Structures are given as structure tokens and as C-alpha cells.
Amino acid sequence: MTDEAWIGLTGTPGTGKTTIAHLLNECSVYSVSELANQRGCLGEVDPHDMSREIDIVSLNNSLEKQGINHQAKGSASSCETVIIEGHLSHLLPVSAIVILRCEPDMLQERLNLRNWTGKKIRENTEWELMGGPWIELVDHKNKDLPIIEINGSDNSPEEIVQIIGKWLKQGLPLTPFAEIDWMEKMVDN
Ligand code: ADP
Ligand code: MG
Question: Taking burial as the number of CB atoms within 10 A of a residue's CB, which of 25, 57, 111, 171 is the most buried?
Fold first, then answer.
């Protein structure tokens, strides 16, 4: 293993993970699904939407045991920051987590552009409304890692990249925990 830092870039589908990951060009970037695919950690195809479930426990074990082979992807070996993007990345053996959030109505608009069922769009929008990845972190050991939460609905992708870059440069300082509460905002309006 090297002393590289693995950063999980997580968030409900549609919050902007892939968009942001593509802009983080000073880091090696991997998606959870590509890592799962490479390591045989994908389950059966779901006939409803042709997606394949990720076996996050075996992917976690595989990453802990084998690390990431950057040569296989031709990534720059000097890159000390590895971004793992995907809506389950906060459950992997990362050393810090970026949680992207998105206001639920805007998220729904973004997800409406996908060829998804109404049920799947509703489930994901509700997940975000309830707190997204924070829900799964409550009882997870990763909850004590440095975590930064960024509002992807009122920051442009470029602004988000700047916020992440600054946080990395500052050495991943602790930031306020789960500040965004869409339900509270709904009540206030
Ligand atoms: P994810 O990978 O989290 O599912 P995507 O990166 O595919 O999300 O982004 C979903 C949609 O939202 C895309 O159409 C993308 O262009 C748009 N998007 C992502 N981030 C932002 C942002 N900060 N501001 C406005 N639109 C965004
Ligand atoms: Mg994506």
C-alpha cells in the first residue's frame, strides 16, 4: 500500500458525482461500478432497469486486501489523491468523504431526464429528502472520518471542484456534520 488518500465522492444518484469526478483531473478517479466490475463484485441484472447490484461487502474486502492497481488504468503513479465516485463510495475503505447534496425538486428534474421508472425516481428523491448517504453513515465506522457536505444545487460544478480542492489542500479539516436538511427547509417555506 502507498500513503495515497482515497476520497469517497458520494451522494444520491443525480447529485453530480460523475460530473464533478470528471473535473477533478489532478486526481486518479475510479467509479465504484468500474471497480466492482473489475473485481467480480457485481450481482445479477435487475430486469426492471437492467442495472446490476453492487456487492459492497466483497468490494470493500477486495479493496482492503488488494488496494488499487493504477497501472491497469494507466493513471499517473505520482497522484496521491484517489477519488472513488459512486453512491456507495462512503461505505468503502476510504480516508475521507465528500457528500454531494441536491435540493429534491431539482434532483427530480435531473432524474426525470434519465430513462428510469417513476418509482425509481421517487425512491431516490425521497432518499435525498431524508438525508441521502448520512442515513447509512449513522451506524457505520466511516462516520468518524473527515466528511464535507456540499450543496450541488446552488454551486456550479466548477465551484464544487474548488471547494473540494481547497478542502484537500487544507488537509481535510473537520466540517459541520449534516448541515443540509431539506425537510426543515420545506417546513420553513
Ligand atoms: P450522478 O453521477 O451523481 O448520478 P451526474 O454527474 O450524472 O450525477 O449529474 C446529473 C445531472 O446533473 C447531469 O445532467 C449534470 O449535468 C447535472 N449537474 C451535476 N452537477 C451539477 C451542478 N453543480 N449544477 C448544475 N447541474 C449539475
Ligand atoms: Mg454517476
Answer: 111
